[in-house]
Design brief:
alpha/beta, Rossmann fold, Dihydrodipicolinate Reductase, domain 2, 2 domains, 6-stranded parallel β-sheet, 6-stranded mixed β-sheet, 23% strand, globular, binds trans-cyclohexane-1,4-dicarboxylic acid, NADP binding
């Protein structure tokens, strides 16, 4: 055991909602961390965090931070990744980037290991971790697509506030208290920090996640659409998305409508495919009111699927409900899984 090779790991954005989960996941997985560097903005530099019982001091992330680093996990926002990921690569690190900065870039694998693990080996230094809502959907749909073919996907999401960071979660907490105390709600962060207008999230539902694009879709919706096609290597798949923020803290839920190509598929066949799918747990039994919820999925690495039904009009149409912890499989766990794959396959 003592001969296990250990790796010099850097976590960029360690204090963030995802960064914290990255550290927890590296611990939980007993990841072979040798040296560990916790990097942050200058604002958080100097503060302390613990990993495996040892205290670490946060350092400001600079190009020089990546000297001798083997694996750099980035989750500090797109602009930090754009600036520093190429620097980390120059210093010889392999970057696993959790932002949208490089996801659609040519030469950057966009990976959900259950779907397209072998894309990792094409990397040129940067591997992108997909958007949280995309990850759980493609992992649930790929086994269906492989077995039955797939022509169309229409998804509506029910997304937790933690996706927008710790500050957004705090805003929900404060607004909820204000609301219950009969006070007026003040919104500063959601739907999008820095955007022109803000709406209360407490006891509300916001049909905007990330900024609007010229076509009337939000960037979150377009990420789901474009990333799904890239990960599945399916440029011709029809995908439409509506992304909605709801007032709960953890896990994204999705109502997914799919049209398969094969005729005569039954709900039982669909259930069996998902039962056997890697990373997926089927929780589906109307007789016992069994289905996943954001609370039941929180703190778990799996993706949970339930409510599988056949469309009542289109014989090739199916509806399903997909739930997963947005900070784990949607972010930290998928990133660590990519790192584990890099090591196991010697693709580093
Ligand atoms: O694209 O606000 O990785 O919930 C994922 C979380 C974008 C924002 C991404 C949110 C982010 C999203």
């Amino acid at each position: 055991m003592s001969e296990t090779k250990r790796y010099h790991v850097a976590v960029v954005g360690a204090t963030g909602a995802v960064g914290q989960k990255m550290l927890e996941t590296l611990e939980d997985r007993n990841f072979p961390v040798g040296e560990l560097k916790l990097l942050s903005s200058s604002r958080s530099a100097g503060s302390k965090m613990t990993f495996n019982g040892k205290e670490y001091t946060l350092e400001e992330a600079t190009p020089e931070s990546f000297e001798n680093v083997d694996i750099a996990l980035f989750s500090a926002g797109g602009s930090v990744s754009k600036q520093l990921a190429p620097e980390a690569v120059k210093h010889g690190a392999v970057v696993i980037d959790n932002t949208s900065a490089f996801r659609m870039s040519e030469g950057v694998p966009l990976v959900v290991p259950e779907v397209n693990e072998s894309d990792i080996k094409q990397h040129q230094g940067i591997i992108a971790n997909p958007n949280c809502s995309t990850i759980q959907m493609v992992a649930a749909l790929e086994p269906v697509r492989q077995a039955l073919g797939m022509s169309r996907v229409i998804v509506s999401t029910y997304q937790a506030v933690s996706g927008a960071g710790n500050e957004a979660a705090e805003e929900l907490r404060e607004q909820s208290q204000s609301f219950l105390n009969g006070k007026e709600l003040e919104a500063n962060i959601l739907p999008v920090k820095g955007d022109k207008k803000h709406y209360p999230i407490a006891f509300n539902a916001l049909p905007q996640i990330d900024v609007f694009q010229d076509n009337g879709y939000t960037f979150e919706e377009m990420k789901m659409i474009n990333e799904t096609k890239k990960i599945m290597h399916a440029p011709d798949l029809s995908v439409a998305a509506t992304c909605v923020r709801l007032p709960f803290f953890t896990s994204h839920a999705e109502s997914v409508y799919v049209e398969v190509e094969k005729e005569g598929v039954t709900v039982e066949q669909m259930k069996q495919l998902l039962e056997e799918a890697p990373g997926i747990v089927l929780e589906d039994d109307p007789a016992t009111q069994t289905y996943p919820t954001p609370l039941s999925a929180a703190e778990k690495r799996d993706i949970f699927v339930g409510r599988i039904r056949k469309d009542l009009d289109d014989p090739k149409g199916f509806h399903l409900w997909v739930v997963s912890d947005n900070l784990l499989k949607g972010a930290a766990w998928n990133s660590v899984q990519i790192a584990e794959s890099l090591i196991a396959n010697e693709w580093l």
